[in-house]
Amino acid sequence: MTKLLIVVFSSLSIFGFSQSYAPAAGEPGSTAIDKNDARFKGWATGIDVERGFVNIEDTLFEAQGSNRATFGDPELALGPAVGTAEDVVSLGDKGIATLTFDQPVFNGPGFDFAVFENSFSDTYLEFAHVEVSSDGQNFVRFPSHSEVQTNVQIHGFGTTDPRMINNLAGKYRAGFGTPFDLDQLKDSSNLDVTQITHIRIIDVVGSVGDSATYDSHGNKINEPFSTPYESGGFDLEAVGVLNQVASLSGEESKLINIYPNPAKSYTSVDLNGQQFDLMIFDSYGKCVHKSSKNFKKVVKLNPGVYHFQIITSSEMFINKIVFN
Ligand SMILES: [Ca+2]
Ligand SMILES: [Ca+2]
Ligand SMILES: [Ca+2]
Q: 83 - beta bridge partners?
């Protein structure tokens, strides 16, 4: 009996039920990141929310006296993930949350940030698109993929196998973040992956009907629909940062020597003998200098204000330097 079931399930992929991606939190190969993981350097500190409809296919329908989702204050998505069902803001159908950070997120080694939802199980999953911006104006979306069938609507409390989903927030249960790697967007125009200032979360409308939203392959994303409650749509719990530009504490600024500052045409950079890569950006964000594996670097620049990005094997620092 058991063996027969295994045979049946393993042949499902032949009929188009692919399961190409990472499994649920706690299973081997999962990419889920625990909310208490020591790698988190910071959390979202600002938020702007545009709530979506309770039911985008019947926009007059109301829950708790409103045709838009109302559950949870936006501020509940700030700070560390808590892992409970209530510490969230509900976005409603196609609702949008735009988050900001004390210090920018950058494309460091591996995953750079993670988005937390409040699902109570590994398979009751509500999804959202994730976009990033380095200027608050131009947003670039992570390429996503849904392998879920699009013939039968997943009902309001239906389930999804997380192995069929890639690069959509909400892949994992409460307390476990879905991670994103900025390296995938490094060649995008109008985006500087060394200075991400805004992360945008956009509810996926899981309808396979007219209001469907699509993955990057043009597939409808089938997820629970409709969810006509005040807590409908994606429930944003938190956004945690893994690679965050450090603000210099007193101790760290002792480590970095940039002199003279303000500079008169020349300045030199050293980290007390530690090796570093250096990139310098002018006030328009244009890179005017790039060098790697330095122990000391002398640079000559025209008068102006510059940002020195200093990257060591473990950290990245940004310093503002004025040339007179
Ligand atoms: Ca990365
Ligand atoms: Ca949704
Ligand atoms: Ca929260």
A: none
